[in-house]
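anyone seen this seq b4? input:
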Amino acid sequence: MNRCNILSVSATIALGLALLGSTAGTIAGAAEIRLLSAVALHPAIDALIPDFEKISGHKITVAYGTAGAVADRVQKGEAADIVISSAPMIDRLQAQGKVIAGERVIFAKVGVGAFVRKGAAKPDISSADAFKRAVLAAASITYPDPAGGGASGIYVDGLLERLGIAAEMKPKTKLLPPTEKLYGSVASGDVEIGFNQISEILAQPTVELAGPLPSAIQNYTQFAPGIVTGSTRADAARALVAFLSSPRAESVLKAKGFE
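predicted toks r here
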C-alpha cells in the first residue's frame, strides 16, 4: 500500500475491522457480496476470498473482466455491491455517481512485464533501448487487444507508438484477449514474446516472466475498490475493502506480483 494512502485508509480499516469482528461466526450478520473485479487481480482475489469469508462470515460472488469492462458493467447498471478497477476508472464511476464518493483506497499496483515460452531464451529488456531492440528483433509479439479495455494492452499499444516502431511492428503483432489465447500463443511457440500485467503472467504455468519493463518506460496500474451506489450490502463491502487493505492481504498481493 502506498504511504500517501496510510492516513486515508486508517479510518476505513478501523471501520472494516469492527465490521469483521461483529459479523464473524454469525449467520444473522452474514451477507452475500457481489464483486466485479479487474482480471489482473484474479490470482490474488481467488487466494484471498476464502480467508475473508472465514473471518467475516460473508460470502462473495466474483466476476472478472478487464478494468474497463467491469467499470462499464457498473456504469450500465449491472447489479453489484463492489467493483475493483483501475483508480482512474473508479474516479470516473464516482464522478458519475455510480460508486460512493470519498471512499477510494488504492490497495495495490502492478507493472507490465514481458513473457516467453517456458524454457525459452529471455530477451534483454533491461533498458528502453534494449527493449526497443528486442521487440524489433522478435519474429512476433502479442499483448491484450486495447479494444477490450485492458490497461496493459492500451499501454503497450501506446508505447510502441511513442518509440516510433508501431508501423514496423504491426505486421508482427497479434492482438488477443487476455485469456488462455494470449498465453497459449506464446506457450505453443506461435508468438515469440508477449506482454501483460506481471500478476497475470506469474499465474500462468506454461509461460515464464522474462522481466518487468525497464523503469524508464514502465507503467503501473493502481487498483482501487468502489462501493456501488445503492448497494444494500455496503457495510459488508466496506469490510472487504478493509480486509484488502490489511497487512494480511498485502502479503498475498506481494506474492502474486503486486506492489
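The beta strands are 32-38, 59-65, 82-86, 108-110, 112-117, 141-144, 173-176, 193-197, 207-212, 221-227. Residues 127 and 215 are 8 Å apart (CA to CA). kinda curious what u guys think
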